[in-house]
Amino acid sequence: MDNIAPLPGEDRFSSEATSAFEEITRGVALLAQVSNYDNNTGLPLVHLWNMLGEEVVSVNRTLAERGLAVWVDGF
């Protein structure tokens, strides 16, 4: 995912972050936008969007706002 990283001092996302991600995305249609590519692996970096009622919500930003990830501009 683009623009988010694990919390400082961690090399991966916590189990709490993983659980929140699963909760936010389970059983719903998502919009994925490829925003960049990882320079080392060539894998796409994406922004995920979820519809909550009439509102489009960024999954990436939600994880950062909940303190489960760090928002990184231009990651």
Question: What is the compact description of this entry?
Answer:
The protein is built from 2 helices and 5 strands; from the N terminus they run E-H-E-E-E-H-E. By secondary structure, the chain is an alpha+beta fold. The radius of gyration is 12 Å and the shape is globular.
Overview of the molecule:
The protein is of the alpha+beta class. It has one domain: OB fold (Dihydrolipoamide Acetyltransferase, E2P) (Beta Barrel), CATH 2.40.50.90. Helix content is 24%, strand content 33%. The strands form two sheets. A three-stranded antiparallel sheet has the order 2-3-4. A two-stranded antiparallel sheet has the order 1-5. The protein is globular, with a radius of gyration of 12 Å. The model has no long low-confidence stretch (mean pLDDT 94).
Count of alpha and pi helical runs = 2
- Strand portion, in percent? 25-35%
Taking the alpha carbons of the first and last residues, their distance comes to 10 Å
Known CATH architecture: Beta Barrel
Fraction of helical residues:
10-25%
Order of adjacent strands in the largest pleated sheet:
2-3-4
Residue-averaged pLDDT, rounded? 94
Number of beta strands: 5
- In N-to-C order, the SSE pattern is EHEEEHE
According to CATH, what is the topology?
Answer: OB fold (Dihydrolipoamide Acetyltransferase, E2P)
> What's the number of domains?
1
CATH class: Mainly Beta
The biggest beta sheet reads: 3 strands, antiparallel
* Computed structural class: alpha+beta
Q: What gyration radius follows from the Cα positions, in whole Å?
A: 12 Å
InterPro entries: SNase_OB-fold_sf, Tudor_domain_containing
